[in-house]
Amino acid sequence: MVENRPLANAISHLVLVLGVLIVAFPLYLTFVASTHTAQDIVQVPMPLLPGPHALENYQAALLGTGEGAASNAPVARMMTVSLVSALVIALGKISISLLSAFAIVYFRFPGREFFFWSIFVTLMLPVEVRIGPTYQVVSDLGMLNSYAGLTVPLIASATATFLFRQFFLTVPDELVEAARIDGAGPMRFFKDVLLPLSRTSIAALFVIQFIYGWNQYLGPLLVTTSEYMYPGLMGIKRMISGGDAANDWNIVMATAILAMIPPALVVLVMQKQFVKGLVDTEK
User: Fold this and answer.
1) What is the 8-class DSSP label of residue 107?
2) Is 3 in a helix, a strand, or coil?
3) For a tag site, which of 12, 108, 118, 125 has the least CB within 10 Å?
4) Are 24 and 236 within 8 A, CB to CB?
5) Tell me, what DSSP letter sits at residue 142?
């Protein structure tokens, strides 16, 4: 029985409200800055209410018509690159991980455990260790400044393979035997039994991997030298010039808001499946 404790409930709600305010206030300031001119933003104190220049700032960001000293590449193109890269990385990771886990769990072949642990051990290698080899391979294969260079080095996931393997191990053997009696081959069992059972896990991993792909910075920094192939995060960094040069901070903030919209939409649209995939234990 849950006891009704008004004071405890009030404190809990207060903590939640404070947490939301702490997280949301920087986002609010970013939005406010994106609606003012660059001169208004550098004033002290900075305006705390939205200004009248939102439409022109977002248009300048999307079309690349800013007048700052740094890069003015169109944000619309950057977001297209980020969207394609994030989708390919997320779908590629899930597809390869599903097939890898399926082979490791349901096929008997020499060195099965060795191959699984070889995949798992890659989790212990920091990204910095792979910078040199990754660039060398991408360069030798002619994938610089291309979607292949942005996605192929990141398309495999040891974490997703491990998670799907652990889930497949919980599938009752009776299902495997029933499928075999019904004459289903390995791929039919995979398509008609395992994939439907893995639906919530796939949804949760898609959200995580999409955000991972969207937020890539180091990888694109290695394999892109042309503004035409800059993803969103690199574009934001290139918009900020060093030294004493003036920056169009209003355009930078508008770009930051635009860059947050797609991953936020993915989380909102798939929120129910995402939460269920993380907490559902009745597979």
Assistant:
1) -
2) coil
3) 108
4) no
5) T
pLDDT of residue 242: 65
Residue 88's pLDDT is what?
95
User: Do residues 138 and 144 touch, judged by C-beta distance below 8 A?
Assistant: yes
Helix H segments across 107-227? 112-121, 131-140, 147-151, 158-169, 173-181, 186-189, 195-197, 199-214, 218-223
- Residues composing the chain: 283
- Tokens coding 240: 């900020």
Which residue's structure tokens are 């792909």? Answer: 213
Residue of 33, 69, 75, 68 whose CA lies nearest to 54 = 33
The pLDDT confidence band at residue 283, using thresholds 50, 70 and 90, is very low
Count CB atoms within 10 A of the CB of residue 60.
22
The full set of domain ranges for the chain reads: 75-246+260-279
CA distance 258 to 27: 12
Can you spell out the DSSP letters for 229-246?
Answer: G--HHHHHHHTS--TT--
Answer positive or negative: Cα dihedral of 201, 204, 210, 213.
negative
CA 60 to CA 71: how far, in whole Å? 12
Tokens matching residue 68? 């700052």
CA–CA separation, 42 and 39 (whole Å): 6
Structure tokens at 66: 């800013």
The dihedral through the CA atoms of 22, 33, 233, 127 has a sign that is negative
**Tokens representing 177?**
């035997």
pLDDT band at residue 71, thresholds of 50, 70 and 90?
Answer: low
In this structure, whether the domain defined by 75-246+260-279 belongs to CATH 1.10.3720.10 is answered with yes
pTM of the model: 0.86
Q: Are 237 and 59 in contact (CB under 8 A)?
A: no
